[in-house]
């Protein structure tokens, strides 16, 4: 059963969860975080570290509400961490739970006392090399899935949550609904494997439920827990708490230290180191208390993460606890408290040494040189990272050196292949960067140019103003007659380093092309003008000829008219 969903709309692929996962149960696929359930131990650390809050705990609150609405007898089994993490009076919290509809509200510590006595029995068993507590579900998953070799050293004792569920159902019948209020999601996974606990909800979910139901925690009618004081069993959620709870429950006359060395381990990373040492047969005759969360359950995955809060919560649990022995009434017997564990490790194919070497080269490890082993990818060594790449659990892009070298190679590629001159100078015009194009144009190697001055190569008068005025120079045109070049100079002031980035673009060919185009334009204009002038002269000549011809024609026609008129007049006169 899934414990949480991932909201990919929120995820920005920062991969912090992947790097932080203590068992590498997350990997990136197409820029999406993917959970590998066969490796996950449900510690919930990914929920804590995600800056975008992409991981959403799948709630069972509606399931609990439906049981209450149906009139079932619903019992709240409250983790003892409550005395450290609640920001209200404990009686008010209990009163709020009963207002929500819980029939009884009981502390899991009343069952933890039975668990403590079982742990003590196994600590006296000489047939067990080491005795490892099975109190933390995430730790048990760590052993079963990643270190099955140590399972025989796990004390086969049920979790106090399961023991409490058995106790409640023995009292009230199998129909009673047991709801565990937990600081950690790993208890949800454990409850799915048992019929003794019907649902697991968190303290934060209860808080929101009360708010939604209009319950004011400050004014609600107060109530007490329905169980007797569990005494030292309240210490289970804090670091060293299991060991101290056992010793107070058994009595100071029978301390664990007489038989075994007592050790308390917090955090998945530390737990893995110890389990590895046990696997290698380095550790013997120890009683080891394990908490997957640093600081114990007070720092569980579903607990508020104010800075220093886990430490304060642990102190508060200690302060609230009455150190002493809880009188047991025989409500749980040995068969109720025994459990078993099984190996669930998934064997993965390992690469050959040659394949590991090739993969290490991909992430920048040079053969014959010691690997960087920076751990930025989340793996302790580059070798472990290469194996994870082979198994498809970690992309090469999750390597700091790979990403750095890729970025640097791209930068070098640009600097080497750009057609522009690129230089960087300090406030004294001393050259600090000199690219390949600059070497070509100025016929000076980079090593020779570094720490020489810019004015040894070009006129710097206009560029000096960039430093004094802090105003960038954009595409200023210059003619380098001594080099036969025309260039555009851009100067960008870099505030952080108080330096000047200079980009010089060679536009000589463009200028020559522009001149050639202009010459062609001028030639075309001259040709057009010559045609116009010729046409004008032709028009004028034609006009002159037309004028002479017209005058002659006019004179002839006038004489012809006059002649015709005179002849007609003479005939008329003779008749008379």
Topology record:
Elements: E1 4-6, H1 16-20, E2 26-29, E3 32-35, H2 45-49, E4 55-57, H3 61-69, E5 74-78, H4 82-85, H5 90-100, E6 104-107, H6 109-123, E7 131-132, H7 137-146, H8 160-172, E8 177-182, H9 186-191, E9 199-202, H10 203-212, H11 241-250, E10 261-266, H12 268-279, E11 286-291, H13 309-320, H14 334-337, H15 353-362, H16 382-390, H17 400-417, E12 421-425, E13 431-434, H18 436-442, H19 446-449, H20 461-469, E14 473-480, E15 485-494, E16 499-506, H21 508-575
Parallel strand pairs: 5-6, 5-8, 7-11, 8-9, 10-11
Antiparallel strand pairs: 1-4, 2-3, 12-13, 12-16, 14-15, 15-16
Helix pairs in contact: 6-8, 6-11, 15-16
Characterise the protein shown here.
- By secondary structure, the chain is α/β, with parallel strands linked by helices.
- The protein folds into five domains: 1-58, 2-Layer Sandwich (Alpha-Beta Plaits); 59-337, no CATH class; 353-406, 3-methyladenine DNA Glycosylase II, Chain A, domain 3 (Orthogonal Bundle); 418-506, PAS domain (Beta-Lactamase), CATH 3.30.450.20; 512-551.
- Helix content is 44%, strand content 14%.
- The protein is built from 21 helices and 16 strands.
- The chain has helices at 16-20, 45-49, 61-69, 82-85, 90-100, 109-123, 137-146, 160-172, 186-191, 203-212, 241-250, 268-279, 309-320, 334-337, 353-362, 382-390, 400-417, 436-442, 446-449, 461-469, 508-575; strands at residues 4-6, 26-29, 32-35, 55-57, 74-78, 104-107, 131-132, 177-182, 199-202, 261-266, 286-291, 421-425, 431-434, 473-480, 485-494, 499-506.
- It has a five-stranded antiparallel sheet, with helices on both faces. A four-stranded parallel sheet has the order 6-5-8-9, with helices on both faces.
- Strand 12 and strand 13 (431-434) form a beta hairpin.
- Helix 6 packs across helix 8, helix 6 (109-123) packs across helix 11 (241-250) and helix 15 (353-362) crosses helix 16 (382-390).
- The longest helix is centred in the C-terminal third of the chain and has 68 residues, at 508-575.
- The N and C termini lie far apart (148 Å).
- The mean pLDDT is 87.
């Amino acid at each position: 059963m899934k414990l949480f969903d991932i909201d990919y709309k929120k995820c920005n692929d920062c991969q912090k969860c992947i790097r932080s996962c203590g068992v590498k149960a997350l990997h990136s696929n197409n820029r999406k975080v993917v959970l590998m359930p066969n490796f996950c131990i449900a510690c919930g650390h990914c929920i804590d570290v995600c800056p975008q809050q992409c991981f959403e705990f799948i709630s069972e609150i509606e399931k609990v509400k439906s049981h209450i609405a149906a009139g079932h007898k619903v019992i709240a089994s409250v983790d003892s961490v409550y005395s450290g993490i609640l920001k209200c009076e404990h009686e008010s919290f209990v009163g709020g739970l009963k207002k929500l509809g819980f029939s009884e509200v009981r502390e899991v510590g009343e069952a933890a006392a039975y668990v403590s006595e079982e742990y003590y029995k196994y600590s006296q068993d000489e047939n067990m090399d080491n005795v490892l507590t099975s109190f933390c579900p995430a730790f048990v998953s760590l052993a079963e899935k990643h270190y099955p070799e140590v399972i025989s050293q796990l004390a086969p004792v049920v979790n106090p949550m399961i023991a409490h569920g058995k106790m409640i159902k023995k009292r009230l019948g199998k129909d009673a609904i047991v709801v565990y209020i937990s600081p950690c999601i790993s208890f949800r996974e454990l409850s799915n494997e048992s019929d003794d606990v019907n649902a697991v909800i968190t303290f934060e979910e209860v808080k929101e439920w009360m708010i939604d139901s209009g319950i004011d925690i400050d004014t609600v009618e107060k109530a007490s827990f329905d169980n007797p004081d569990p005494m030292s069993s309240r210490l289970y959620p804090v670091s060293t708490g299991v060991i101290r709870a056992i010793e107070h429950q058994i009595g100071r006359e029978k301390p664990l230290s007489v038989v075994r060395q007592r050790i308390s381990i917090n955090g998945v990373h530390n737990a893995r180191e110890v389990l590895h040492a046990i696997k290698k047969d380095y550790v013997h005759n120890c009683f080891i208390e394990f908490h997957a969360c640093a600081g114990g359950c007070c720092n569980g995955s579903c607990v508020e993460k104010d800075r220093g809060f886990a430490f304060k919560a642990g102190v508060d649990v200690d302060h609230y606890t009455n150190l002493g022995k809880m009188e047991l009434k025989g409500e749980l017997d040995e068969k109720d408290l025994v459990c078993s564990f099984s190996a669930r490790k998934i064997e993965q194919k390992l690469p050959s040494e040659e394949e590991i070497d090739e993969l290490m080269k991909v992430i920048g490890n040079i053969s014959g040189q010691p690997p960087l082993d920076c751990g930025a990818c989340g793996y302790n060594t580059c070798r472990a990272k290469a194996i994870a790449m082979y198994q498809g659990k970690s992309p090469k892009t999750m390597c700091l050196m790979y990403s750095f070298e890729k970025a640097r190679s791209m930068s070098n590629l640009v600097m080497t292949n750009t057609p522009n001159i690129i230089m960087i100078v300090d406030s004294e015009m001393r050259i600090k960067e000199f690219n390949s194009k600059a070497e070509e144009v100025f016929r000076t190697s980079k090593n020779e140019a570094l720490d020489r001055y810019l004015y040894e190569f070009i006129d710097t008068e206009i560029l000096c103003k960039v430093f004094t005025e802090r105003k960038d120079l954009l595409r200023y045109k210059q003619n380098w007659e001594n080099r036969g070049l025309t260039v555009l100079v851009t100067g960008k002031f870099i505030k952080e380093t108080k330096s000047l980035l200079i980009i010089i673009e060679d536009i000589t060919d463009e200028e020559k092309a522009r001149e050639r185009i202009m010459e062609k334009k001028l030639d075309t204009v001259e040709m057009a003008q010559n045609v116009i002038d010729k046409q004008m002269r032709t028009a004028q000549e034609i006009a002159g000829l037309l004028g002479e011809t017209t005058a002659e024609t006019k004179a002839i026609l006038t004489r012809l008219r006059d002649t015709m008129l005179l002849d007609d007049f003479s005939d008329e006169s003779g008749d008379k």
